[in-house]
Amino acid sequence: MDYPITPAIRVLRERKIEFTPHIYQYVEKSGTRHSAEVLKVDEHSVIKTLIFETNEKKPLIILMHGDLQVSAKNLARILNVKTVAPANSEKANKLTGYLVGGTSPFGTKTKMPIYAEKTIFDLEKIYINGGKRGFLIAIEPQVLRGVLEIEAVEVRQNVD
Asked: N or C: which end of the chain has fewer CB within 10 A?
């Protein structure tokens, strides 16, 4: 199967990380529910790569289960900052070099601290963006720790 060679894929290839590519029809603003349905996987194992920034405008990456949200309040408390909020699309695109909806934690343009919901590491396999809209890769979650400097945190909250 042909799949895009993105900065994320280059990083994984350099590190000799095994992954399974999954290409699907991207639908604007459809989120992880759509990709989970198309790939016939549990949305909980589809991991979102979100770009947040602190009140001091310091960017960071947070990895979260597709069916859950980030508690900005808890994340701010952990980071010991006043507030954190999602970066706007334009800023997120600029920081990562990826388009929102196709953001991967691998091969970002700007090096940022990366936090991951700790329960991600309990999963057998995760589906995370490969650096392009409509392109997820399946990997073992422990691979994240092997390739990225990640801090596990507890900041999940149910979707309203």
From this structure: C
- Among candidate residues 125, 117, 108, 105, the one with its CA nearest the CA of residue 46: 125
**Chain segment 84-139, per-residue pLDDT in tens:** 999 999 999 999 999 999 999 999 999 999 999 999 999 999 999 999 999 999 99
Handedness of CA 137, 139, 144, 146 (dihedral sign): negative
What is the CATH code of the structural domain delimited by 7-158? 3.90.960.10
Give me the residue spans of the domains in the chain.
7-158
User: CA-CA distance, 62 to 103, in Å (whole number)?
Assistant: 11
Task: Give the burial string for 125-160 (b: 16+ CB within 10 Å, else e).
Answer: ebbbbbbbbbbbbbbebebbeebeebeebebbeeee
Indicate the pTM of the whole model: 0.96
Given the structure tokens 């994320």, which residue do they identify?
8
For residues 131 and 7, the answer to whether their CB atoms sit within 8 Å is: yes
Give the helix/strand (H/E) hosting 114: strand 114-117
